[in-house]
Amino acid sequence: MHKNRLAVRVSNRIKKWLHPFILSENQWIRPLSDQIENLKTLDPEYFSWLVKHKLIDVFPRLMLPEYPHSKSVLFSVVIPVYNTQSNLLEKALNSVANQVYPVWEIVICDDASDSEDTLNYLKILKNRHNHEKSANNQNHRIKIVTNSHNRGISESTNACVEHAKGEFIIFLDHDDELYPDALLKTKEAIEHNSHAGVFYSDEDYLSTDGYHHSYNFKPDFSSSLLETHNYILHMVCVKKDLFLEAGGLRKEFDGSQDYDLLLRLLDMGQYFVHIQDILYSWRENETSMLGGILKPEIFDRGKKALEDHYKRTGDKIQYIKDHIENIKGFYRTRFAMPEKINILAVQIGKRGFYFDPYDVAKSVHVEHLVWDPSNIFPMEIADTNADIVIFLDSALIPSSWQEFLNEIVPVALRKNIGAVGALVYSGDHKIIAAGRSLMPWGDMRNDFWEYDSGDKNSPAKRTRDVVAVSGAAMAISSTVLKAVLMEGTPDQTMWDVEICFRLNRSGYRSVFTPHAFLLYKGAIEQYHGATMFDVRHLAEKYNIVKDPYLNTNLIDINNLTSTDRKIVIPSQFKKKEDGIYNLTKEEKKKREEQEKKRSDFYHKWLAFHAPDLKKSSARIAKLKYKPFFSIILPTYNSELYFFKKLLQSLMSQTYTSFEICISDDSSTDHIFIEFLER
After folding, report:
1. Which residues of 176-206 are buried (b: 16+ CB within 10 A; e: fewer)?
2. Do 153 and 252 contact (CB within 8 A), yes or no?
3. Measured between alpha carbons, how far is 157 from 257 in angstroms, rounded to an integer?
4. Neighbours of 127 (CB within 10 A)
């Protein structure tokens, strides 16, 4: 009797501990081999990353001590649909059904589709929903609403949200896929950032033949980068209340509706959290931004969303250009120069400083101060009456002083902007300064050092927030600079880094702009600031734990020592001028050969870990006669879980000359019948 009571207490404790993570009856744990097969890619380094980060052993994760006390979060995954291919929509839905975190619902809005394929598939989903609802089954988690007429993606998404019960909304395109840990990683981010209302993740692209490529590892939230293009894209999770408070998506921005929403949430003062993990796969096809031909008005609407953003922020702009360097969806803003401006130009070094007073407008008044960097930082700058302080190495020359000032001064005067750094390049067009990054082991590096400054598609051509900029070409509002100099004299050798760290701690952003650029006339090795220097003590002093704008997944980990490691240029920058990803001829040829030989990395991985697979393949190759098998499967109300496992075991055979013939004896189980129909 005592043992029975003990068993009951233990059983109840386990149930309480697992709640709410008890898997539903329709969920099943995917075998390791299945997971690996879904990580197909032709990029060996990316395959290594996927195997390391995306294989999921579900039970240890669910057994972590913090889960018993955590609050369940219901995610509403909203999917607007219009004439979607049923096989692609099914893949999207399965990617949600296969989530490790089980507390979710799917809300689909059919925007008056007229495709028979789409309508038939939605009918099957509706029948399943009604069947499970009538059976009082907790798994009726797919809701379908239908528009009476075609209303567009914005209003269809809004209709989904209206019917959503979740506290958080996940946006999923009808033909894309989530990685199995997407909702779990998002829930973890929500638990650690309860004050935040917007979450976004990294993503990759999914080719038409199912290969992952072009990983997009993003920085933590950078409003300056967002003002150049919608770098956030997928996956986006927003609190439902905030979505409704913002007014939802606006129909007049269809095609760029997500960009408009993000800018409005930014202007509402919402806190954005970046989940540094790839949780979303964006599928290439003829109707997507990746593989399709898009109407020009989509990008015009993005430009209009950006114009509305600047109206809300009160920024005065001179113009916004789109299709920068012929890349669709990228915008370049020139902010308006004040009618009158007083500038203090701090010359760094005793070399002759070339400044043409006739090259600036009469409304611009420039004073000079020469500073020998072998001396301590000139604190008399704090007494200036100028509006802007610009630090310039004496060996730097712009193509036009007025153009340089027109670009850097208005940015430095914007709200919440601290230091603004310019692009510096050498005589042979190699980048010397384009912002700085703090490496995890404490080194400060100049971004894109010695990369080609003429590369139109280089990420160095994007205005973006950085942890620090080079003091050799740096502009700061005198009001902001005076405030941080009150803390004392900056470090003599790393004064620019310390100023940026102080600005960061005070809530100001350091910004790099490629549109203010200068030519460096000296030798590169004499340039102010080495390519790499240790700032660990400064980072600790100002509590800079990590560089928020450096995604550590981009650090080349293949080199043995940290001093040799470089920041990798993401593969998505291998694009044509029209901005659409494309393989080179050599890459295409290699890809075709690999596909013919079935030499994807999944099979290579299996061959390595299962040596007898090679023997099996060798035996099959030696067969003079290769018989064709017909495997007969009679079924009647089969248990779906075991039936799927049976099919998987057949499809994983190394000998492939066979067919599967299923003969169903008038099954009555609704779910099993629908599975056979699909």
Report:
1. bbbbbbbbbbbbbbbeeeeebbbbbbbbbbb
2. no
3. 10
4. 13
Q: Which two tokens stand for residue 396?
A: 């730097």
Closest CA to 474 of 24, 320, 466: 466
This prediction's pTM: 0.78
Looking up tokens 């001396």 gives 375
CA distances from 9 to 1, 5, 14, 148, 248 (A): 13, 6, 9, 55, 48
C-alpha closest to that of 330 among 127, 58, 515? 515
pLDDT of 78 reads: 97
Q: Where are the alpha helices (DSSP H) in 342-459?
A: 401-412
pLDDT tens-digit series, residues 523-548? 655 455 544 567 888 889 999 989 99
Please say whether the beta carbons of 111 and 153 come within 8 A.
yes
Which of the two residues, 462 and 557, has the higher pLDDT score? 462
Q: Which helix (H) or strand (E) holds 132?
A: helix 116-134
Q: Hey, which residues does 663 pair with through a beta bridge?
A: 634
What residues contact 171, with CB distance under 8 A and at least 6 apart?
Answer: 78, 157, 234, 235, 236, 237, 238, 258
- The predicted pLDDT at position 232 comes to 96
Q: What strands lie across the sheet with 436-438, from one edge to the other? A: 436-438, 443-446, 532-534
Q: What does 215-233 look like in DSSP terms, one character per residue?
A: EEPPPSP-HHHHTTS----
Kindly report, residue by residue over 148-177, the tens digit of the pLDDT. 999 999 999 999 999 999 999 999 999 999
Helices marked H in 246-355: 257-267, 296-313
